[in-house]
Structures are given as structure tokens and as C-alpha cells.
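Hi Y.,

Following your request, here is the sequence exactly as I used it, all 337 residues.
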Amino acid sequence: MDATLSLPLLIGLIGVALVFDFLNGLHDAANSIATIVSTRVLRPQFAVAWAAGFNFIAFLFFGLHVAETVGKGIVAADVIDAAVIFGALMGAISWNLITWALGIPSSSSHALIGGLLGAGIAKAGLPVVVWSGVIKTSAAIVLSPAVGLVLALLLVLLISWLFARATPRFADKSFRKLQLVSASLYSLGHGGNDAQKTMGIIAVLLYSQGMLSGGFHVPFWVVISCQAAMALGTLFGGWKIVQTMGSKITRLTPAQGFCAETGGAITLFTATAMGIPVSTTHTITGAIVGVGASRRLSAVRWNVASSIVVAWVVTLPAAALIGAGFYWIATVTGLFA
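Below is the corresponding structure, written out as C-alpha cells. Let me know if you'd prefer a different format.
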């Protein structure tokens, strides 16, 4: 067991984790609201409030399997200390701020996991890596957008068949209402999967300090704090990324927005139930591409989509390097000694 932190340092580190969670909501707000804003179903200010509300109540619908995966399924829990947590959080926060400033919808989830891997390896080398969890998470980088794409494409085909005889006016009016439902489901999935990653980080920090009785678990106050931080971040929105996700990849109608959000929501619900920390960014991007490709391949701006994919590939190693650097800074300066 590493040295016990003073209470102010412990509170400060938990505060940094909640800042990351806030930035996660800010950075990934576009995932929840981009389609509903771009189709003009809701004004931006109403859309973010709508998404934030469902982000917050997500804990009522999901277990804490993702939090457990992040807390003890990426890096061995018994080697994690305050410096490793600091490195992981700062690596993720730094990468989030860089990509947010550039308007690139990278993955906050994989930034956090990359930061945790980098800091953990910097402390104790490759043996600390829990490869089963890392492989499962890495596979999701490919699978979550692919599943989102296929589901959205199938939904477009199904809806085209069901509404083949409907007038354009009737279809548009119907899907403007249905998009409120699909956006709600997607926001639930976003809050259920993403907020749990910070829960896992705070829980393993408390575990490393001997403050969890009865083994590793996530206290309820941690659950509420993380859901609230993410909801607040969503309220502030991330308008540069909203523009990229909502219109630069492909133009969407309300029906297509419904298909993208529903396909993404199904993917997130499934991954959260299985305890897989997927990227909401990857998932909704795949779904939007699937919707665009259902019209014709040229409807998708593949240069934008390809630049997003490059950001996905770079996120894990970039955040890992930054996380290792911050771990080194914390160790050299004796910040948590």
C-alpha cells in the first residue's frame, strides 16, 4: 500500500477527476445533441438541457460494470496510487482540451484509458497491464462504430419500407417527435457508459488509500458526483464538435437523425451491460456515416470521417505519453509524497 494522502490532497485529486468528468460532458455533448440540433428539432440551448437531464439520471438504469472495468480491469488495482491517478487524469484532460480546441471529436474514454496505461506502465512496467480488459476495450474501438453503422443502416432501410407510402410532411412531423425519444435514449447511454469511467478512477483511488471497506466497490456519493459533473459539462456544450458531428460528416433529416441516435443508443446500452468502456464518439460517428452511406457513398464527406478515424488511432498512445509525463512530474516533485 502506498503512502496515505493528506485529506486536502485526496479531495484535490478527486476534484481533478470531476473536472475530467465535466470536460468529458463538455467534449462529448456533441455526441448526444449533434443530430437533434442539426435537424433543427430542438434549439441548441434546449437540446443541451435535454441531454444533460438524461445524462444525470442514467445511473438509475445501469449497473456499474464499466466502472469496475476501468477501476481494476485496465491496470492492476494494487499498483495504482495517487501519482498514477494524477498522471491518468492529466493525460486525458490535456488530450481532451487539445482535441476540443481543434474541434476534433476524439474519445474522452480512450484518452482516460490511455492516460491510465501510460502512468501505470511508467510506474511499474508492462506487467501491470490487465491485458484482457485492454484487449476488450481496444476491440471496441473498431466494433462500436461498426455496430453503430450497421444498426443505423438497417434502421434506415426498415423505416424507408414502413414509410414508403407516407407523405414527406407526415414523415417529417413524425420523426421530429421520435427524435426526442432517440436523443433521450442516446443521452442515457452516454451518461451510463461515460460517467462510469470517472467513477472507476475515483473508486480505485479510494481503494488505494484504504478507504473502501469490504473490497473494491463504487460508493453512491461517487456515482452521484460523477453523473452531476458530466451533466453540467453537457449543459455547457461543445459547439465546434457539434458542427463537425452534425453537419460536416453528412447532412441529416429528422428520420436519419432518429436512425443514427437509435443505432448508437442500442450499441451503448449493450456495451454498458457487458461492462465495456466504449467511446460514445466512435459509436455516433459510425451511426452517422451509416445513415449517410444509406443514401449514397458520396453523401458522406469521407475526408472528414477519415480525419476523425486518425484521431481515434492517435488518442490512446498520445494520452498514454502525456499521462506518463505527468506521472514523472508528480514523482520527481514529490507531489504526493
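The chain is about 75% helix and 0% strand.

Thanks again,
Q.
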